[in-house]
């Protein structure tokens, strides 16, 4: 149930393999550039702004990453909701909108 984003010819996302594993795939030749450690997340809604990747995991943790062809580059992790998050988040300027099971929350990014 996870999606992926493209940045400069590289696809970044979360695979179901190994109980949830982030990956980067070269779209030109189809080669996997890297895979993260296993058991990262069950599902994730992945968005991007420039070369920053936002992965809202189903356990309500927002993982902020920098696009990187050589490995997983996590900048920060934030708990952003009280319940499970299944909906795609929305980014509007410096605002991040998160819908969990029963609430809608607006976060401001600085």
- The CATH architecture classification is Beta Barrel
The strands making up the biggest β-sheet line up spatially as 1-2-3-4
Q: pLDDT below 50 for ≥5 consecutive residues: which ranges?
A: none
How many H/I helices?
0
- Helix and strand content put the structural class at mainly beta
Which fold name corresponds to the CATH topology?
Thrombin, subunit H
Shape: globular
Q: What is the share of helical residues?
A: under 10%
Give a nutshell description of this structure.
With 110 residues, this protein is mainly β. The chain has no helices and eleven strands.
What does this structure look like?
- By secondary structure, the protein is mainly β.
- It has no helices and eleven strands.
- The strands form three sheets. The protein has a four-stranded antiparallel β-sheet, with no helix packed on it. A four-stranded antiparallel β-sheet has the order 5-6-7-8, with no helix packed on it.
- The mean pLDDT is 93.
């Amino acid at each position: 149930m996870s999606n992926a984003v493209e940045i400069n010819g590289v696809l970044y996302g979360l695979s179901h393999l190994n109980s949830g594993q982030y990956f980067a795939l070269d779209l030109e030749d189809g080669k996997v550039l890297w895979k993260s450690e296993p058991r990262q997340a069950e599902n994730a809604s992945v968005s991007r702004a420039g070369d920053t990747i936002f992965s809202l995991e189903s356990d309500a943790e927002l993982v902020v990453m920098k696009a990187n062809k050589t490995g997983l580059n996590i900048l920060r992790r934030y708990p952003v909701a009280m319940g499970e998050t299944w909906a795609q988040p929305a980014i509007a300027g410096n605002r991040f909108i998160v819908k969990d099971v029963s609430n809608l929350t607006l976060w401001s990014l600085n």
